Amino acid sequence: MSRIAERFTSLREQGKKALIPYLTAGDPQADATVPLMHAMVKAGADIIELGVPFSDPMAEGPVIQRAMERALQHHVSLSQVIDMVAEFRKQDTTTPVLLMGYLNPVEIMGYETFVQRATQAGVDGVLLVDLPPEEAEDLLSHARQNGLDTVFLVSPTTTQDRIKRLSAASSGFVYYVSLKGVTGAGHLDVGEVLKRVGQIKAETELPVGVGFGIRDAESARRIAEVADAVVVGSALVRLVEANLTSPQQAAQAVADLISSMRKEMDAISPRSAAKMHNL
Amino acid sequence: MAQVKYNYPDERGHFGPYGGRFVAETLMAPIEELTAAYHEAMADEDFLREFDYELKHYVGRPSPLYLAERWSNEIGGARIYLKREDLNHTGAHKINNTVGQALLARRMGKSRVIAETGAGQHGVASATVAARFGMQCVVYMGQEDIERQAINVFRMKLLGAEVVPVTAGSKTLKDALNEALRDWVTNVDNTFYIIGTVAGPHPYPAMVRDFQAVIGREAKSQMQEMTGQQPDALVACVGGGSNAIGLFYPFIDDEQVALYGVEAAGHGLKSGEHAAPLCAGKPGVLHGNRTYLMEDSDGQIIHTHSISAGLDYPGVGPEHAWLKDSGRANYVAVNDEEAMQAFHDLTRIEGIIPALESSHALAYAAKLAATMDKEKTIVVNLSGRGDKDIHTVAQREGITL
User: CA distances (Å), B91 to each of B124, B126, B386, B387, in order?
Assistant: First the structure.
């Protein structure tokens, strides 16, 4: 069983939902990343989503775009991001790490090399925003052989047929994008999320995580009531951006937000969590 | 040997290993909707008739084919014919495609169109058809380009478009494209994205080619009429590559016709400051398709340079990538200085001020013609007129207007 699957199983046994914070690797500089990952785990993160900087991040809103630009000022590469995960693993062998990024850096490294290096470093899964399953055959075959989970996005515009295809290509969990638009935008419609999570669950046994638009403890709790995992990105990156000169203060602010989300999410009664699992 | 007809892309939009659909999941549904609408429209005689009508009465087609006799004599080689896309409404080939896509948008019931633009030509062509068909229009343009192309920005505004400055990344065309994709992902329900070149996710490369192929079809019959035969070579500049594909496509199966795509060598291919992914880049994935890119060893897209804003793009249409690998077309590069020389030559010798983009094609055609016999013929796509570039030319030559 992969580290991601194990984590979801153990959370389910405890009647808890997964909290998945995002950070852009190398933002604002390379040596800030691993300490921030540890701080996230300490504050209650279950899985870390680590963004790989790309020069043309088409699905990102301005907050994550700026984070990637900061990282790229120091030329933080995919290769370095993989090394960061190896560094993180020296102290933490249990928290799953999911790389999130765009296809081109992986394409240039080569699918086979990427998958081998990533798994050796202790990366557990990969999500490539601009790689739909139709184009993912090569990556999928290398990932399956090496036990790397592949997470695909389902969006508000995805048809039921495609949900089936995306679920089949996914392992670890399925990621539902809760709104039309870029990261960090818009307002959540929890009723709509509930409905779409149900449609995904009709196609797969995999846990369903929900991201885009979750910014505080309250919205994290509302999503945790209807999904297996809550992904938080721009709200955390914004805190890094607000504390560019002090990595310690940034880590503290990030940890505080994660703790408050953790607390709210864990306050959901086990009954409502169980109800969710039976959807 | 039986002739196998050129038949690309495949059903999923692949030209060999290139093309495809590399987009965020939210865009898959609108892209599938667009693909279906495009196939339906291209099979619908009413749609094609309407498109032809607009091309004739609004754009002013067919555009003339002109023998540049004095210039050809001066070069002393093959005779050079110019396909006068500069005489179209709005002054470039871009309008052929925007008319086609606007008709498709109307057919799909989309009331809002968006576009990206570099030099502003595609933005102007999009704003023009939006005015013509009564649609809301938003054009994304890099902050740097807005400053360089003030006149086109004002033209778009006069036409009723909203011009949104893009301040992310390198603040140029590629970033405008990113921003347009972000708009589309947010407003998929009522918005049609008019991409200006033969790049982007399938069906854009094929669709834009089909709307631009009128250039090559006309050139083919005009050459037959004027010379009684087909040309020996075709030459066109390649940024994204829409004017080149428009000219080449109807000739691809005529293997005796040589095809030359001319990229921008900027300060020279060796300087690294250029916009020539086919000549000096390598394959990768950007803006929804796999193609040759200007990128570093980490897969980050790098800064490009060309004196001509319309060629200043780090990617290229996937069909060109395939025509290169398959050997059907040749790709070469011309630097800023050579393009400037051709700009002046055509202006002084033929009384035609070409766009700096087209000047790259002219510069290569002059070199090529010099190596060919006088009985041979070359068709150059004069893709746009150069009025928009006179400030750039003056500035380069130290002249204050």
Answer: 10, 13, 9, 9
What's the pLDDT tens digit per position in B313-371? 999 999 999 999 999 999 999 999 999 999 999 999 999 999 999 999 999 999 999 99
Residue B127 and residue B112: Cα distance in Å, rounded?
Answer: 11
Residue of A nearest to B24 (CA): A130
Whether residue B314 is preceded by a cis peptide bond, meaning omega within 30 degrees of 0, is no
Q: Which of residues 207-266 of A touch B (CB under 8 A)?
A: none
Mention every residue, 6+ apart, whose C-beta is less than 8 A from residue B122.
B94, B98, B115, B116, B194, B196, B197
Peptide bond into B9 cis (omega under 30): yes
Within A153-278, where are the H helices? 160-169, 190-201, 217-224, 234-242, 247-266, 270-277
The confidence band for A272, taking pLDDT boundaries of 50, 70 and 90, is low
pLDDT score at A273: 54
The verdict on a CB contact (< 8 Å) between B299 and A105 is: yes
A residues 174-203 closer than 8 Å to B (CB): 177, 180-182, 185-186
SS3 A100: strand
- Which one, of A242, A240, A276, lies nearest residue A258 by Cα? A240
DSSP state, residue A254: H
Distance between CA atoms of residues B401 and B259, nearest Å: 39
User: Is residue B116 annotated as a catalytic residue, yes or no?
Assistant: yes
How far, in Å, CA of A15 to CA of A269, rounded?
A: 8
| Nearest-by-Cβ selection for A157 from B22, B29, B182 | B29
Of B287, B315, B298, nearest in space to B24 by CA: B287
Total residue count of chain B as it appears in this document: 401
Residues 6+ apart with CB under 8 A from B49: none
User: What distances in angstroms separate CA B141 from CA A112, A261, B112, B165, B389, one per listed residue?
Assistant: 38, 39, 17, 5, 17
What ipTM, to 2 d.p.?
0.94
Q: Is A188 exposed, middle or buried (0-12, 13-18, 19+ CB in 10 A)?
A: middle
How far from chain centre, in Å, is Cα A170? 14
Chain B: residue whose CA lies nearest to A57: B178
In sequence order, which residues have a C-beta less than 8 Å from that of residue A17 and are 6 or more positions away? Answer: A11, A224, A227, A228, A229, A230, A265, A268, A273
Annotated active-site residue B383? The verdict is yes
Q: Which residue's structure tokens are 């892209």?
A: B31
Active site residue B306: no
Closest CA to A59 of A30, A22, A33, A34: A22
The tokens describing B196, both together, are 């200006």
CA-to-CA separations, B329 to B222, B283, B380, in angstroms, rounded: 22, 17, 15
Q: Which of B85, B179, B383, B388 is catalytic?
A: B383
C-alpha count within 13 angstroms, C-beta hemisphere, residue A122: 17
